[in-house]
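Predict the 3D structure for this chain.
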Amino acid sequence: MAHKRQSLSGESFLPNFCAIRMVFAVVIVAQLLSFLFALVPLRPGSDEQWSNLGLISLFVQWIALTSAALLCSLRRWLARLSQIQAGLLSYAILLGVIGAISEATFWVWQLSGAALDSSWHLHFLLRNLVAGAIISGLVLRYFYVQYQWKRNVQAESEARLQALQARIRPHFLFNSMNTIASLTRSQPDQAEGAVEDLADLFRMSLSDARKLITLEEELALCQRYLHIEGLRLGERLAISCETEALPGDALVPPLILQPLVENAVYHGIEPRAQGGRVEISGARKGSQLTITIRNPLPPSSEGGRARNGNRIAQDNVRERLAAHYGPDGRLELSMENDHYDVTMTLPYRTQQDEGSNR
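Done. Predicted structure below.
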């Protein structure tokens, strides 16, 4: 069943031999093998191996590039097979190419006037097939091991991303449920709206961590969270949102901003008796988006140190940015004029960009 699922998904342990980088790697490896084969004389008892390096290189490169071209042209068809079938067929293709080019090379030498007997013919053919069988088996085995390793790493990364995304502070759930309970009789409409907001937040936290959403949707989730907290904190929570300069179609990981907004409320607003303002702003600079979340520092924060646990959400977001964007996704922290700023930088990508990268 595993092999069947892999074939239906179009996956294969073979790399893409149509890619320029893979073709370049094939050429380099083939040339290294040519140097190795040059140590073994073409004819028994001959010491002309180094003078024949050019011919050996041409021979090996023909085999390597022809094999790569065939595997490239059959790539989609091989992807429909199970891994075992694709491996055996690829192995047979490589040996067939080696045998065919070896035979053609022998007859070219014969036609050029070289005195080659049948025993040398058999020795040349068998030597190439044996060497090709060993090398092809090792190469295919290497590709398969690499493929399995990448699948395991990907599975672990996806599980970690899912765990990071699903992490919502228990105190927020308890506070939200208490707020909803207190509004059920006095203000049932607001209680119903809070339940819908909470359901949307949890639905997103349980969604596929690999699937990106638009920045417009992420900002709407932040507004839903702030609406729930606004019902609990009342006038103590003021909100300023200046995100008009941000492109709404930009793709971002789900719940990438909400934990930072929650951090701002939990560490910057709740400890202050008079409350404060959470400011969300952003802008696009070329191919990069910059989003800043600002909150006041509590008076008792002792030099700007917030309540315990402030780093958990930030580390969570930083790891998810690194997983999705690598070095292009950054999270920077600063404190200035009794305010705490969290600035997120990430590349501007749209659905069209994601489709072209596939």
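DSSP finds twelve helices and seven strands in the chain.
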